[in-house]
Amino acid sequence: MDGGAFAQFLPLILIFAIMYFLLIRPQQKKLKEHQAMVAALRRGDQVVTQGGLIGKVVKVKDDNEVEVELAEGVKVRVVKSTIANVMSKTEPAN
Questions:
Q1: Contacts of residue 34, Cβ cutoff 8 Å, sequence gap at least 6
Q2: Which residues are listed as membrane-spanning (predicted)?
Q3: CA 72 to the chain's CA centroid
């Protein structure tokens, strides 16, 4: 009878394993890559926010914020996690 109980749970175990490898694991990898990208932000990088605004990073603040210049003289404060993509990176200063 132990084999029968295991046979009943085997499909559930397989479904969970498939869900893990197709959904959960890639999402965790994508989240880690995004966190690394946000941590590497520096002054001069051209970024795209999740709202679709394109601008240049003017100042990186320690408290999870960056200041982005959208146009000449137009600066906005943006939460780091809302940066969707870094279009061009600047070289680090020596």
A1: 81
A2: 6-24
A3: 28
Residues in contact with 26: Cβ distance below 8 Å, sequence separation at least 6, in sequence order: none
Q: Read off the tokens for 65.
A: 């914020």
Q: Does the global pTM surpass 0.90?
A: no
Question: Please, are residues 50 and 64 in contact by the beta-carbon 8 Å criterion?
Answer: no
Say how many residues make up the chain: 94
Cβ proximity of 83 and 45 under 8 Å: no
Q: Give the distance, in angstroms, between the CA of residue 22 and the centroid of all CA atoms in the same chain.
A: 18
pLDDT tens readout for residues 70-92: 999 999 999 999 999 999 887 66
Residue position matching structure tokens 């809302």: 82
**Alpha carbons 32 and 24: distance in angstroms, whole number:** 13
DSSP-derived letter for residue 81 is G
User: CA nearest 44: which of 86, 84, 90, 93?
Assistant: 90
